[in-house]
Write the structure tokens for this entry.
Amino acid sequence: MSMRAAVQRVLRLDQQIVRSPEAVEKELSSRFISYSGEEVPRMEPLSCDQITPALPPPGHGGSIPVTDWTAGRTRSFLLRPEDYGC
């Protein structure tokens, strides 16, 4: 089968989808693309109360002082989370 015949065969299966620009914008606004080009779901913000139960206990063997590698607002948040409502 030639390349032309293969393309024509596939194109015969296409269907035209009629959508308004607003509908397309709404659909695309909920999609995000990762750095590797993979489509990922929209991030859902979590509160400190939702995150805290998933953290390892203080003094856990795998804990490391992450503040050694942070700066600015991130470091400030890690050192004083109560200043950020946590």
